[in-house]
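Sorry to interrupt, but I need a hand with the structure work. Go ahead and set the record down below:
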Amino acid sequence: MTNNKNFTYIPFSNIKKQYSELRQELLDITDEIYKSGEVIDGEYTKKLEAMLAERCHRLFCVTFNSNSMALLLTHLAFFILKNNGQEKNKIAIASLGDRYILNSVLMSGNQPCYVDVDKSGCLDTTQIVPNSVTFVVATNKFGNMVDFDLLEHINIMFQEKPFIIIEDASESFGSKYNDKPSGSFGIASILCFDKSSILPNYGTGGAVLTNNYNLYRTLKSFRENGGEDTDRYGVEARLSEVDCAQLTIKLNYFDAWRERRQKIAEYYNKNISNKILRPPLTEGVQSCFSSYPLLVYASRPEFKKILMGDGIEVNNLCNELLHTLESNQTLTFSGGVDLYNTTKFSKEGILLPIYPELTDVEVEYIVEKVNAAVEKLKLSAV
């Protein structure tokens, strides 16, 4: 890496720079679609779904206009397929998560059951009390992944009736666990294409991956106002043909982008001071590093203020805990109510910029200023 600073501000994410590099390809394909008049459910929708399914070793893929809609309709599908909507499913979710996870559970008529995260920030599978839940939303964080072998072991060994696993791969598309790609675990996996995700759209977007034909068919009809099933309700939740086409272009660059993120993470790992904590990766995980977390003990506001003053935008790892939101009517926990790791991440966690458009100079500058802030605040790993 070199050392020739020629910038004044490093944003947390930079979709504008990505667009400038792909602009002509994106404009050309957009013009092609608008000229054709086929702006929804065309060949690029089919192509994107096939590409995603192949990458994630799945038989089926259904794209949606957001990942929150993808997860909500998945819950609704199981609410109907599993018990005809006669009783609520109790669904285990990590409290350290985005609001769409809780909303999808509540809006589908189900009941959330809150679980702590482990030291890596992913759902702590050891905290799931046997026979207490019917579903588990296994949320991967920062590119890291849940210990799926342990989760399956618990499911087989200790459950009288196995729970159903839904993998939330919104932050882990491109990662692998024991050489299996994220997006291939559980009965269904959820992907996200929001602007700050590892495969960003210019707006929102999401997808569900599955090998279950009944689920696939139900989701297809749900997203198209019921589709051809006149006895089934639905919503209009399709991703536009332009969005799908642009994402197919980006998938051609995806492997290079992931390798660049991994290179930046490797540099961070080697050069950021050991006086500041980094959550460990789950054993067997090859991370895509959708984000890069640090834990700043007792000094997060001051640490952020210093970096922002140096022109580096950093984000809080978590701004709210799901179990504290007013939308909860009742609170149910699995494995205890203290949620120790969840609280620690929410109070101490920050995220550094880690996107492929960062230059070597910018990466070096971030490390330099992070280390300077560590020394200024006299931080130590706790």
Remarks:
- Residues 15-36 form the longest helix (22 residues).
